[in-house]
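P.,

For your records, the input lines for the assembly:
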Amino acid sequence: GAVVSQHPSRVICKSGTSVKIECRSLDFQATTMFWYRQFPKKSLMLMATSNEGSKATYEQGVEKDKFLINHASLTLSTLTVTSAHPEDSSFYICSAPRHAGYTFGSGTRLTVV
Amino acid sequence: KQEVTQIPAALSVPEGENLVLNCSFTDSAIYNLQWFRQDPGKGLTSLLLIQSSQREQTSGRLNASLDKSSGRSTLYIAASQPGDSATYLCAVETSGSRLTFGEGTQLTVNP
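Structure tokens returned:
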């Protein structure tokens, strides 16, 4: 139980295009979803917190117009990387609170060429 | 600002050995501490969650301890197996449902 499904697992896109990453809670309702970014051999850095039905809260230094977050339902949160550039290449992971802890998606490897 | 440090950054051991991974945090005002496993290119799998009022948690060959006052946690892995090879991350939760992660310990268990 408590599975968060994240898609796609890998995506390669051209510079200047936009990429959407989806996270779905499969057997529970996630009113809150956290979006992280992870650089190679580094820790997870919280980018933003999405809340169902309201605006996302972004961490300091994260461009909200660059990383668009939508949490339109209790089971779906999306992160759209707009006008992607090579420096946006990274591993993106979503997470939802569950049972006093957190459950994570399987991650999305984004490569911008 | 909460900072989480994990030592060692990498560890290579022969199969069957018992090992200890260390995690320290600077602010003891935490709600809980969680240990995760991450395989290359994959998401995180929760291993153990220790509430701030608890001292340790056990699951199979894994035992995690928490000393909140000193800002330390250890993850003990007994009788290590090649399948245990992965990166192990610890994370502490503070106010605002904020998780702060360490940079992880990359474990390699050699057959």
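Two observations worth noting. Chain A touches chain B at residues 6, 32, 34, 41-44, 46, 49, 91, 93, 95, 97, 100-107, 109 (CB under 8 Å). DSSP finds no helices and eleven strands in chain A.

Regards
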